Amino acid sequence: MATRFDxxxxxxxxxGQMFAADRASATMPMDLYRSGDHYVLHVDxxxxxxxxxxxNVEDRTLTIRAQRSSRTEQDVQxxxxxxxxxxxxxxxxxxxxxxxxxxxxxxxxxxxxxxxPVAEDAKPRRIEVQHGASTAQxxxxxxxxxxx
Length: 148
Hints:
Helix content: 10-25%
Family: Belongs to the small heat shock protein (HSP20) family.
Number of strands: 7
Number of helices: 2
Domain SHSP: 21-132
Protein name: Hsp20/alpha crystallin family protein
Organism: Cellulomonas septica
InterPro entries: A-crystallin/Hsp20_dom, HSP20-like_chaperone, Small_HSP
Mean pLDDT: 79
Shape: elongated
């Protein structure tokens, strides 16, 4: 079996373990898109315990938190330990026009999905234009009948 050793990658890994103990908080990739009358947010949370996932909204700030615990096997010698542990956290400032009280969330296969509906008053709507006789013609007719 061939073994490849990259001393720079190994040094980077060791320094990362020593100085970036809470690297998990920096790695919460997401996708956001609009589909019809709601926004969809997919957040990668691989290995997060579903019971630790917390989504809350305060004012116009959406906060997502989750915890990934470290494995606690006894009597093991780690050969590589690259998966981050700790608390994931991400905050997003959301704009007006969203129904923040109607957000739904699901967690499947390591992906947290939020569906954020657009508020009713922010949805585009068509305003019907009324057609009718002009005011000047109505006034002229009424004046002609009064003088007769």
